[in-house]
């Protein structure tokens, strides 16, 4: 047996070191099936101490580490490379809720907890953890933190970064940094936790976090609304916030092509409106007050929107089941696209005011290049984050079309940059955009990021090939500048 594998077994036990190809296979492919890698082993620790011991062992043997949570990422950030040198550090067994402090409105959770488990624990304590993603049943808190996940309620509660008070992380040399402080004010130097949030495991392994909780929601109102165009959608967002204030929890835009894919591929899906509008928005209001009448408030705001020509038609959910059915249309778009086949995907953000400009100008430029292109556009219009995905109507044409990703990226990403936007809003960079980001980040910003990487991970062992174009190993340096 490989001495390194034997040493791993001594740390975590034979049953938690997978080296058989069949056992490792689920960990070596990303959710979309775009990236496939090779690993020396898959290691499944059960505690922070075991994670630290594994990391120390890898540092001593110069073995790269690919941290992995629920493996639901969309950019290949948790998939090992093809060289077979790395181990996959699967963190799903670190799944304990360590503490809930209802008076402090905090919960301490381990990185392998699913997002749904944290949401449930918060509800049982009479609180709300507001991060909400379509993959919440399988994605994990460690992955959410590592990619600074966004989701549908950023408009009211912010990205994951804004929901974290403290972290525990294993550093690349195996030391444990205990920063699990549930403080909202701590002005004692650099805010180190922010280095690890959004770093996709390239600076260390997040093992636990202190997360913010909020008052439980007692009243909700949900509506699916047809709008004339994206300009109307943006103006309607402003109207809703004027009339409803912070009760506007989510404001999602869905293009016709995105909804049609759901209707075609997801059993039980039904078009909520007649007339097949080209653009729709999904709106949710919520309020912690039991006496709140969010439905009446929503209906009154929608009436104003119709009067101002911002809304054409609407349906307001009459029950939790109806609200869930409306949300399922939005949340199943990614799954429907996966079932439809491969496509060129973009996760971009622009200032909310520039969303109509982006959608109009991108469509013009893309259809000029490919007249038969299908544009699947949807996303979180309330925070400027659009998922903008491209394919051909004929599924058999998409394999060749994906080969022209770089041309599509030039059109989409250059336009995003010209509008003051970002080419990665909430999915991270992973492998997918590691090189693409070099075109858009200032050189000084890239050098600062590389400097942080070299300082914390001088051996270059933490999730190599992701986020940054840096590969540094002990005893030798091979850095792409």
TrEMBL record:
GO terms for biological process: respiratory electron transport chain. The keyword Cytoplasm does not apply. Its cofactor is FAD. GO terms for molecular function: catalytic activity; FAD binding. Keywords: FAD, Flavoprotein. It comes from the Bacteria. Coiled coil: none annotated. The keyword Ribosomal protein does not apply. InterPro entries: FAD-bd_oxidored_4_C, FAD-bd_PCMH, FAD-bd_PCMH-like_sf, FAD-bd_PCMH_sub1, FAD-bd_PCMH_sub2, FAD-linked_Oxase-like_C, FAD-oxidored/transferase_4, Oxid_FAD_bind_N. Residues 35-216 form the FAD-binding PCMH-type domain. Belongs to the FAD-binding oxidoreductase/transferase type 4 family. PANTHER family: BLL6224 PROTEIN (PTHR43716:SF2), D-2-HYDROXYGLUTARATE DEHYDROGENASE, MITOCHONDRIAL (PTHR43716). This is Hydroxyacid dehydrogenase. It comes from Thauera humireducens.
């Amino acid at each position: 047996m490989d001495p390194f594998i034997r040493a791993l077994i001594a740390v975590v036990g034979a049953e938690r070191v997978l080296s058989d190809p069949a056992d490792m296979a689920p960990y070596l492919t990303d959710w979309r099936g775009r990236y496939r890698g090779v690993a020396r082993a898959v290691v499944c620790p059960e505690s922070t101490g075991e994670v630290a011991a594994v990391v120390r062992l890898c540092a001593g043997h110069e073995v790269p580490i690919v941290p992995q949570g629920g493996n639901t990422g969309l950019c290949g950030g948790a998939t090992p490379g093809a060289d077979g040198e790395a181990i996959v550090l699967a963190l799903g067994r670190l799944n304990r809720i360590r503490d809930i402090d209802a008076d402090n409105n905090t919960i301490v959770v381990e990185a392998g907890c699913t997002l749904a488990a944290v949401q449930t624990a918060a509800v049982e304590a009479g609180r709300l953890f507001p991060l909400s993603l379509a993959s919440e049943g399988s994605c994990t808190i460690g992955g959410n933190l590592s990619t600074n996940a966004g989701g549908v309620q950023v408009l009211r509660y912010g990205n994951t970064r804004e929901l974290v008070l403290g972290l525990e992380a294993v550093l690349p040399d195996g030391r444990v940094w205990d920063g699990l402080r549930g403080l909202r004010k701590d002005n004692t130097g650099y805010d180190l936790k922010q280095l690890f949030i959004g770093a996709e495991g390239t600076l260390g392994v997040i093992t636990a976090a202190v997360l913010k909780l909020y008052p439980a929601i007692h009243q909700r109102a949900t509506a699916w609304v047809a709008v004339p165009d994206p300009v109307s959608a943006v103006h309607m967002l402003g109207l809703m916030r004027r009339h409803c204030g912070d009760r506007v929890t989510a404001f999602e835009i869905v293009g016709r092509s995105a909804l049609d894919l759901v209707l075609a591929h997801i059993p039980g899906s039904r078009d909520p409106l007649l007339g097949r509008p080209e653009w729709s928005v999904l709106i949710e209001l919520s309020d912690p007050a039991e006496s709140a009448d969010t439905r009446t408030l929503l209906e009154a705001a929608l009436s104003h929107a119709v009067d101002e020509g911002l809304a054409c038609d609407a349906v307001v959910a009459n029950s939790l089941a109806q609200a869930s059915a409306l949300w399922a249309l939005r949340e199943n778009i990614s799954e429907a696209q996966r079932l439809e086949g491969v496509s060129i995907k973009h996760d971009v953000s622009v200032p909310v005011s520039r969303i109509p400009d982006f959608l109009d100008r991108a469509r013009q430029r893309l259809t000029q290049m490919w007249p038969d292109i299908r544009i699947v556009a949807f996303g979180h219009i309330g925070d400027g984050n659009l998922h903008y995905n491209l394919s051909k109507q004929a599924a058999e044409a998409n394999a060749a079309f994906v080969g022209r990703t770089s041309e599509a990226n030039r059109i989409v990403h250059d336009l995003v940059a010209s509008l003051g936007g970002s080419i990665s809003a909430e999915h991270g960079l992973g492998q997918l955009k590691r090189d693409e980001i070099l075109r858009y980040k200032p050189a000084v910003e890239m050098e600062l990021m590389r400097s942080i990487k070299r300082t914390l991970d001088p051996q270059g062992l933490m999730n190599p090939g992701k986020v940054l174009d840096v590969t540094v190993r002990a005893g030798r340096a091979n850095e792409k500048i």
